[in-house]
Every structure is written in structure tokens, then in C-alpha cells.
Amino acid sequence: MTVTIFTVTQVTALVRSSLSAVPELEDVLVEGEVSNLSRPASGHLYFTLKDAGAALKCVCFRGTLAGIPFRTENGITVVVHGRVDVYDQVGAYQLYADRIEPSGVGALALAIEQRKRQLAAEGLFDESLKRPLPLLPHRVVVVTSPTGAAFRDVCNVIRRRAPGTDIVISPAVVQGAESVSTLLAALERAQQVPGAGVILVVRGGGSIEDLMSFNDADLARAIRRSILPVVVGVGHETDTTIADLVADRRASTPSAAAELAVPSMAHLHADLEQRSFRLRQAARHAVTTKRRLSENLSRRLLSASPQRRLAGMRQDVDLRAHRLLSAVTARVGKMRRDLDRDTYRLQSATPRHRVQLLRAEVAARQQRLAALSPFAVLKRGYSITVDSKTGKVVTCSSASPGQRLTTRIADGEIDSAVAAVRRQGENA
User: Fold this and answer.
1) Among residues 198, 149, 141, 210, which one has the least CA distance to residue 174?
2) I want to staple 418 with a disulfide (CB 3.0 to 4.6 A). Which of 351, 380, 382, 403 is the partner?
3) Domain ranges of the chain
4) φ, ψ for residue 97 (rounded to 5)?
5) What's this model's pTM, rounded to 2 decimal places?
6) For every one of its 428 residues, what pLDDT tens digit does the chain have, with 9 covering 90 and above?
7) Three-class SS of residue 199?
8) CATH of domain 8-104
């Protein structure tokens, strides 16, 4: 019996021939989870499809990969179309993919979700970056197709709500392969329009394929870089694009975008009238409150006015003056009567008796003067302390340590110096 020995190349060729004999492997759809994903510098995509029972190596060449809208990632389940063949260099069979689609979801929808995650990681959807819209812009720039219904709807709404607002169109293609580049150029032109206050990026409804231009990452970044606030109104109310998410304000339709951009003048006038009415009411209330407060303070001030006290003080002064005058008059009258009596007694007395009366009078007056004399106070044990230099009476407020003093007592004077000063109430 003859034994045939094959070379590796021959065995590989036999395997390839066996695989080629199976028509199903020339046009096959395989579903599985992506793992071991690799993107080398060549631009090709290498990965493994696996399920619970087996694994299949796959390759997608660079030219084919450029036509796949979404980004293949580890862990997602995909359906891959292609052919199964042998890779001679490693002696393994693999699936050569010419189409990759996500399992259970459209490729465009998955591409949009992946792009959203990427732009969210860049911070483009951050609410703190969104700018407020001007209250009443003088000029509105519309980025859209000049022939589409969206532009006509925007013009009708703005002219109805704010007839004095200028409308400028920055034309762009809103669908197709060239739409993104024209939208970027139109957005750049819109920012150069003199006096522009806000930019509207709008288009009518369509399929997900029709709206893909507004899911472009470059357009989203351009909207965020805009120096003017941007309102995006693309499609219908249920359509939400990446441009909607990154815009300063999102509108459900082009008409709604126009309503966000300009206020209704009628509503503004009504609001102004209402605010003016409330302001007048508040002003009247404030004036009334202030007037009442002023009147109350005036009454309190009048009750505490010095003029009223001055009138009473004047009466008191008049009364005291009258009493003083009466007392002086009575004293003078008494002195006159005493003088007249003494004069009469002197005139009627003999010279010798008159001398006695005068001596008695002098003695009585000397006694009264002695009683009022400070020296009589000194004799009772009191003293008077004066500054040795000035002779002025010394008090605690005028005394200072080291000051020379002279103390007068009943039978002489004592010189001393101040050692310390203690006012009344202070501890020794």
C-alpha cells in the first residue's frame, strides 16, 4: 500500500478546494459578537465573531471599511456578509467581510449613537456652554436651502411676529454628499453678517438618511464654535439630530425655530402694558407708604420739638424773674425800713447813745462777716490746698504727680509735693 505525503501547501489547497465546493460559503451571512478587534496602520479591520459554541476570524479591508457608516467596537453584535476562505500564511480559514451591519438596529442609527457618545465626551452637549438668545434681534440669519419650504415658513413666522426684523439667508445644500461642506461654509458666512443677532439652521422633514448631514461631527463642532447663538430646527417634532443637541436652543420644526428666535411684538406690547400697570401701582403704594411714614414722623418730631419746651421754659423764666424781683423788692424794702429805723434811732439818741448804737451795729456786722469768713472754716479743722506757683485751688483733675502744693490751715501753711492722685471712688 503506497502512503502519500502532502506538503503544507498541498493540504491548504485541498482545504481551499473543499471550501470552494460549498456554494453557501461564497455568499454567507454570519451573526456574532465582536471581540479581539484590531485596527493596524494598514487601515484594515481584524476581529473575531463568536457565539456560545465557536469563534470565527474575520477581516475587512480598508476600501470596504470606508463604506461602513458606523464604527465597529468590541462587544457589539453584528451581522457580517462575505465569503469564507483560507489564509495560506497561517493555515487558517477566515471570513472576508464586504458588509457589516449591527444586529437588531440600523447602521445609521448606530453610527449616530456612537457619534453622540464621542461628542458628549468632548463636552459639546454641556448645558453650561449654551448661550442665551437676544430678546429682540435686529437681524436673523437663516442657514438652509433657499428653495425649500423651511425658509418660507421661517420668513412667514418672523414677519408675523416681528415685522421689523431683517431676514438674511446664507444658502446651503441640506441633503446629499456635498451638504456638510456647504452647511459649514454657510454657517461661517452667517457669522460675518453685520448686525446679526442669531442664526437659524433649519430644514424640513425627511428620512434618517436625508437628515444625516445634521448628524455630522464637524457641523456639530462648528455650531459650538459659532460666535452667535444658534437655533436648530430640523425635520419634524420626533426627529432629533446631533445638531439639535449641540445647538443653543433646539426647535421641533423650522417654524418653531423662528418663534424661538424672535418674540411676538403683540405679546411684548401686552407684557409691557401689564408691567407698566404693576409699576404704577407699586409706585403709588410706595408713595402712600412714605407719605404716611413722613406724617407720623412729623407728628412725633413736633411733639418733641424744642419750640414747645422753649415756650414752657420762657414761662418758667418769667415766673422765676417775677419771684426774684418780688424777693429783691421785699429785701430792699426791709433794708430801707431798717435803715430808716436805725437813722431815726441815731437821730433821736444822744451823741453818746448814738456811738453805742453804732458800735453795736459794727460788732454785729463783724460777727456776720466772721461767720462767712473762710478762716472761720479753717478753725473748724478744714484746709485749702493751692498750687504753690499759681495759687489756684487744686482739684484731682488739675493735680499731677510731683506738683508742689501749699496747704493753708487755721494757724499756718504746709508745703508738700503730690505723690499720687486718686479720684473719688478709686481703690487705694
Assistant:
1) 210
2) 403
3) 8-104, 124-262, 264-298, 320-372, 375-417
4) -85, 135
5) 0.48
6) 677 776 777 777 777 777 776 777 888 888 888 888 998 988 899 999 988 889 899 999 988 888 877 788 888 888 888 888 888 888 888 899 888 887 765 566 667 777 888 888 888 888 888 999 998 899 999 999 998 889 999 999 999 998 889 999 999 998 888 889 999 999 999 999 999 999 999 998 777 777 888 888 899 999 999 999 999 998 777 778 888 899 999 998 999 999 999 988 777 787 788 888 889 899 989 998 998 888 888 888 777 777 667 767 777 877 887 888 888 888 878 878 877 776 766 666 667 776 777 777 778 777 777 766 666 667 777 788 888 888 888 887 788 888 898 888 878 888 898 888 887 666 65
7) strand
8) 2.40.50.140
Name the CATH superfamily, with its identifier, for domain 124-262: Succinyl-CoA synthetase domains (3.40.50.261)
Q: Is residue 265 within a helix (H) or strand (E), and if so which, with residue range?
A: helix 265-303
Residue 59 identity: V
C-alpha–C-alpha distance, residues 113 and 107, integer Å = 10
CB atoms within 10 A of CB 31: 13
d(C-alpha 312, C-alpha 306), whole Å:
10
DSSP result, 275-308: HHHHHHHHHHHHHHHHHHHHHHHHHHHHHT-HHH
**Which grid coordinates belong to 72?**
465597529
φ, ψ for residue 103, nearest 5 deg: -80, 125
Among all chains, which residue has been given the C-alpha cell 437588531?
Answer: 104
Grid cell for residue 40: 493596524
The residue type found at 200 is L
258, β-bridge pairs: none
Checking DSSP bridges between strand 196-203 and strand 77-87, what pairing results, if any? Answer: unpaired
What CA–CA distances, in Å, run from 158 to 131, 165, 251, 411? 21, 7, 15, 116
Q: Which cell numbers hold the place of 174?
A: 441640506
